[in-house]
Amino acid sequence: MNVFDFGDEVRVAMPRGVSKRGIPGISVLYSTWPEARFDGATGTVIGIDPRSTYGIPLYLVDFSQHKNRVAIPWQRQWFRGEWIVPAEERTPKPVATEGELMAPSGAGKTSIEGST
After folding, report:
1. Separation CA 8–CA 30 (nearest Å)
2. The total number of structural domains that make up the chain
């Protein structure tokens, strides 16, 4: 289980599952919870409640200073520790030009010159 401190940047990662139609996404057990609307959003830990209801530690995450692609219903929300993960770097990774990650020769070319 992750342990976070004040000021840590985190990303909400709700438990994953498959719907009855076989579509992967948030587990159906949690899809109606308010926290499910924040799935994928990045925020900063601004509060910690180590012994909340039922002894589950909760983290207050603030989303106001982050640009998220997720439509967030409000700016702050309490989350369980297992529902948040450390936020990864958002810098694009360079494309491999040599080595094992490089595309096979000819993969970037078309069979007919001048076609798109």
Report:
1. 25
2. 1
Burial tier of 26 (Cβ tally within 10 Å: 0-12, 13-18, 19+) = buried
E runs forming strands in 9-111: 9-12, 16-18, 24-26, 42-49, 58-62, 76-80, 84-86
Domain of residue 53: give its range: 9-86
pTM for the model stands at: 0.68
Q: What integer best gives the mean pLDDT of the chain?
A: 81
- DSSP state at residue 103: P
> Residue 60 and residue 55: Cα distance in Å, rounded?
16
Where does the pLDDT of residue 36 fall: very low under 50, low under 70, confident under 90, or very high at 90 and above?
Answer: confident
